Amino acid sequence: MYGLTGYKPDEYFMRLALNEAHKAFDMGEVPIGAVLVMHEKIITRAHNQVELLKDSTAHAEILALTAAYNVLGAKYLPDATLYITLEPCLMCCGAMYWSKLGRIVYGAADEKNGYKKYTVQNPFHPKTEIIQGTLAEECAMLMKDFFRLRR
Amino acid sequence: MYGLTGYKPDEYFMRLALNEAHKAFDMGEVPIGAVLVMHEKIITRAHNQVELLKDSTAHAEILALTAAYNVLGAKYLPDATLYITLEPCLMCCGAMYWSKLGRIVYGAADEKNGYKKYTVQNPFHPKTEIIQGTLAEECAMLMKDFFRLRR
């Protein structure tokens, strides 16, 4: 499938999320990408566009989710997996709670703005499975490169 | 000002947020409203449109904030006050963190979905002032009426 040997779906889709993050990087946006997948089909993909849209809610996750609601005409996504290059912030975490996503797969941890810094209990929907650390090093490296260039 | 005696700005604007919540109620949406104000001028107003838009991010607060970013061409709102009829959820709380709002004034507490249930420390921007309980009873009553009608 996908012409790859040793195909691992989570890594495959996380690499596409990383491609999205690279697009953000090239546009001077904090390099975070997201891909929303249902039954191994990509529904939406997005990258951070806070600067372009001058909208501090325009995180990759929010854009991928709202585009999916629009495409699917559904406000809940229990059959979908959202791939994100970085641990979500509190806003995106809350948006995912409401979405009732089946799975959330994220790459690098975010000690500064990640949801874990603020929350006491699992803030996601109880039926949502959370996988962390997929391609974490690559996801983290892209963030580091971005901020190093700006200092 | 506004032709009212005993004018209290927070109550005045919260009443407008309640008007927004009533619009949601009339459309079969959970009755939550928001008004964004700068220098005593209304910039945007919104009500919950989750059902209409089939978009579980379409909370009153998110709609009021994103419309304000659009109107003002700014992604931070340090001079603005956001009036909300209900304690914000985690998603909206996170969106307000990124907005760097000057003030947040909310009405009723929300023990089920409010941000306080999940957070350990102040999740808002450290410079944001939080006022709670403005017209709380009226805001809570509207929610109760809504859910009583649906049971």
UniProtKB/TrEMBL annotation, chains A, B:
Superkingdom classification of source: Bacteria
Keywords associated with the record: Hydrolase, Metal-binding, tRNA processing, Zinc
Residues that bind Zn(2+): H59, C89, C92
InterPro entries: APOBEC/CMP_deaminase_Zn-bd (IPR016192), CMP_dCMP_dom (IPR002125), Cytidine_deaminase-like (IPR016193), MafB19-deam (IPR058535), tRNA_aden_deaminase (IPR028883)
Location of the CMP/dCMP-type deaminase domain: 8-118
A GO MF term: tRNA-specific adenosine-34 deaminase activity
Record-listed E.C. numbers: 3.5.4.33
Annotated Pfam families: MafB19-deam
Gene Ontology biological-process annotations: tRNA wobble adenosine to inosine editing
Reactions catalysed: adenosine(34) in tRNA + H2O + H(+) = inosine(34) in tRNA + NH4(+)
Comment on bound cofactor: Binds 1 zinc ion per subunit.
Signal peptide: none
Described purpose of this protein according to its UniProt entry: Catalyzes the deamination of adenosine to inosine at the wobble position 34 of tRNA(Arg2).
Complex formation: Homodimer.
Family to which the UniProt record says this protein belongs: Belongs to the cytidine and deoxycytidylate deaminase family. ADAT2 subfamily.
Name of the featured protein: tRNA-specific adenosine deaminase
Organism: Haoranjiania flava
Designated gene of the protein: tadA
